[in-house]
Amino acid sequence: MKQSCIFCGLSELQIIAQNEFAYAIRDKYPVRPLHTLIIPKRHVADIFETTSDERQAMHELALLCRQSICDEDAKVAGFNFGSNVGEAAGQKVFHAHIHLIPRRNGEIDLPPAKAN
Asked: How many CB atoms lie within 10 A of CB 13?
């Protein structure tokens, strides 16, 4: 655990789901309502440093949280699911985490489709 890491040593009250290798919390600064973070318990800087067991655990939590979000808000029609890796990509907290961002119809403009 890194002393200055906001994801290390979170209060149990903040955790909405967990398993052996990972936990889920609501984002403190959500892009959209119910924006969730899936975080490995072990401190590693980015998703590429996680083990296969950690990635599997994070994926299982993402599936669980996805269903929970859909049950809580019937207007959710899709999700953004991903991780920023490195400062140049917008990573702000250097403890690996995946964003699970619920989306509702009409929230974002999709780019036009391009054919080759």
From this structure: 7
CATH code linked to domain 15-104: 3.30.428.10
* Tens digits of residue pLDDT in 26-53: 999 999 999 999 999 999 999 999 999 9
Tokens linked to 12: 């149990």
Angle, CA of 14, 17 and 21, to the nearest 5°: 105
Instruction: Domain ranges for the chain, please list them.
Output: 15-104
Q: Does the pTM of the predicted model rise above 0.85?
A: yes
Give dist(CA 47, CA 96) in Å, integer: 5
User: 98-113 pLDDT, tens per residue?
Assistant: 999 999 998 876 656 6
Compute the half-sphere exposure of residue 29: CA atoms within 13 Å on the CB side of its CA: 2
Provide CB contacts within 8 A for 79, sequence distance 6+.
Answer: 66, 100, 101, 102, 103
